[in-house]
């Protein structure tokens, strides 16, 4: 018999535990649920000749959910998607939209005028 070292990742352990719990409760939906995790929304940065435009995929968030600041020529985009309260008309069996905080940082070129930065 040969022994093989096994080093599981924390995520695979969580998935296995999730699978076992669902089996105990006879849950037919063996699908992942993402909760309380740090996530990185997709971001596009483009230059149109006289300005840079940063577009982030953060649907469902309002302006008050997102914070933008600049420190030492680094633009920081931070926010949080809060968990929706479940209504009495049902429960989630499958959730792919991440819940929790996110943070993205971008080094600004020397040519960027920090005072001219706008958010919309």
From TrEMBL:
Pfam family, one: HSP20
Name the record gives this protein: SHSP domain-containing protein
Gene3D superfamilies xrefs: 2.60.40.790
InterPro entries: A-crystallin/Hsp20_dom, HSP20-like_chaperone, Small_HSP
Taxonomic source organism: marine metagenome
Residues in SHSP domain copies: 34-120
Transmembrane segments: none
PANTHER family associated with the record: HEAT-SHOCK PROTEIN 20 FAMILY MEMBER
